[in-house]
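URGENT: need a sanity check before tomorrow's submission.

F., can you look over the Ribosomal RNA small subunit methyltransferase H record below? I want to be sure the sequence and structure line up before it goes out.
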Amino acid sequence: MEFKHTSVLLDETIENLNIRPDGVYMDGTLGGAGHSKEIAKRLGPDGHLIGIDQDGEAIITAKERLADYGDRITVVRDNYQNFKSILDELNILQVDGILLDLGVSSYQLDNADRGFTYRVDAPLDMRMDDRQTKTAKDIVNGYTEQELFHILKEYGEERFAKSIAYHIVKYREKKEIETTEELNDIIRGSIPAKVRNAQGHPSKQTFQAIRIELNHELEVLTNSIDGMIDCLKPGGRLCIITFHSLEDRIVKNAFRKNENPCICPPNFPVCTCGRKSKGKVITRKPILPTEEEMKANSRSKSAKLRVFEKGMNI
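Structure tokens as predicted:
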């Protein structure tokens, strides 16, 4: 199956990266190289792009699509949380721009074998990196009822988390849960019919929660933002595209804290904590897709782009 993915907020992201022909840029979620190809087009002979992705199929596709740009491109199979060691290996201290396009690619959703989607019956997998041994099946069958409730409530913001967790545990007393359709059936049976019929697919939030837990998505994001800002050159920018409220909240709060880290009481006339701003938030409100983009790509509807710029004197 061909790796297909329509890059969301493409023009807006490229514009906000302020790409210089001789600059060094990092795409921490390379995917099918949609954003990266547009960056590469704008680089001159002295420019460099580092593309990182943990998905083996994405790496193969990206290398093919970026082959024309030769040694201006370095492609690395890894999780973007390891960006600092990757840059160290390349003897790169700072970069001019960093991009993160979070969430699941269209390819991962459309490829039923990956087990990300609730719309097709498939083995419960959901791994973004198939070198990892733990799968969604292990979570569904191995977590306690309380642990399941916690991730469904916290990561899926699921109203019926308690009922779904209870019914998962009851079902697996009889047999192991192996497929997406089995899990779908359990979820349907856990939600009142009048609610189930009035909203979107009843499994959406549960599948999201399990995927986030399995791939440590929020933890990785939270632990990476400050370090990425530190790795920017003065005037460099960090652009992050999110697809749900949990990610967006993490990004918004992290950007705000890096812009104004002072913890002194508001009534103090002078800052005494010594914490210095690292730069400024460019997007006071997130950049959203246009009506045209949302019509052309329904998966862009929940996308939000936030941008942070490193201070010039840091």
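My own read: The chain has 14 helices and seven strands. The chain has two domains: 10-107+217-310, 113-215. If you see anything odd, call me.
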